[in-house]
Amino acid sequence: MDPYSLKKLNKERQARRAAVLLTDIGDGRDRVIKEGDPVAGALGEAVKRAFLSGKSTIIEVDGRSFFLNVHVPPPRLVVIGAVHISQALAPMARLSGYDVEIIDPRTAFATPGRFPDVKLFAEWPQDALEKRPLDPYTAVAVVTHDPKIDDQALERALKAGCFYIGALGSRKTHAKRVERLAAMGFGTDEIALIHSPIGLDIGAASPAEIAVAVMADVIKTFRTRGLQATRHLEKTA
After folding, report:
1. The organism sits in which domain of life (predicted)?
2. What is the CATH number of domain 76-236?
């Protein structure tokens, strides 16, 4: 590997940004492609698929063979609210390969007894996320129903470009949330990125069922990012 390519690749990995090390098997030359870099033609389509799958592969384009060594940050789920939904959601997310963090300043809820073996932070979101910033490979599920807590997290999630942002609440609750976010300076297109009501529409009623809906929505959004708009237009219509 070219030392320059190695340095560039390590820089991307340390910053939790996805990159592909593209190596021409014929002559051994390599280069680093960051997610979002323009790559034309069939090679570009193959690179896009590799980013979505997260799997390294060998491809053939125009009679040449290439090895795509894919480096995608492990997806992370940050749950705002140490509630019953979170108790069911955390183990589901971990089984799905997600790093999980739960943030809730309410110390009566954010206890190790209720959330064993989970990264738990009994802090306000703005404090917790200042130390552990959000990024495009992070999903945020906001489930406290308390604007003083939820809005802080939503503000940071929108600014960070998180691949999934979901918020619990009825349409009436979300309408008020939209007004508050607009007052913060967010535009209509930005606010429309929020999945609310949170999760896929499977008729979920219990906390465990809602957790299933949320995790399914997170996975779907992660695996289709870049292929379709992340807005749920039917939910915001």
Report:
1. Bacteria
2. 3.40.50.720
